[in-house]
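anyone else get weird line breaks when pasting these?? whatever heres mine. first is seq + tokens for prot A
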Amino acid sequence: MNKTGTLVRVSGQVVRTHPVHPELVSGTFLCLACQAEVRDIHQQFKYTQPSICSTPQCANRKSFSLILEKSKFVDFQKVRVQETQQELPRGCIPRSMEIILRGEAVERAQAGDKCDFTGTLIVVPDVSQLSAPGAG
């Protein structure tokens, strides 16, 4: 059964934590052609500039600068979780998965902790592979 997009609970032992980074959630950009602000550009999986300036007479499609002070960021951390030995049949290799923590959840789990994570299961594309030669 495919559980992508549904609320799930994953239990396991944290085997690795990555450093906390800011994640751009919603960007406000300055149009470098007419100096207008383009607000609330939603970000998803990769840095996304506006597709066109919001000023009708401008029509700029490629020259924008992110205004850090007017953009929204959230703390972001990846942790790797592995099945515990007690949950596995004898002789099986434990499976692992990366879990993305945001906001108040970051830095709450440390390597060695046994944790339950509840959230939405998503498939995050490897953006670096999407633009690689021969991809697609």
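and prot B, same format (seq, then tokens)
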Amino acid sequence: YKRQYQRRVHGEIMDGQQEQPLQSLFKQADTDNSGTLSYEEVIQAMKAFRPGTSEKEVRDWIAEADLDNDGQINYEEFVNFWKNRTA
């Protein structure tokens, strides 16, 4: 199921239908409903959707996505990151 969901989300991002699947992914990862993704939440999401992800990969992902350098990923940063990755 996870693989199927990942392919569907990636396909929708590539087709430009980004908002709904990205919003769903963000909400799933934002387990404390703070409106931002913490380092811990990113680790948990990566483990769920990409088993075997290293801590270095998570740190690199956060560094690339965290445009305001606050150590958290807000929704705008999350969307921008995925748009840039699939462009």
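btw re prot B: The first strand starts at residue 36 and ends at 37. Helices lie at 2-14, 19-29, 39-49, 55-65, 75-86.
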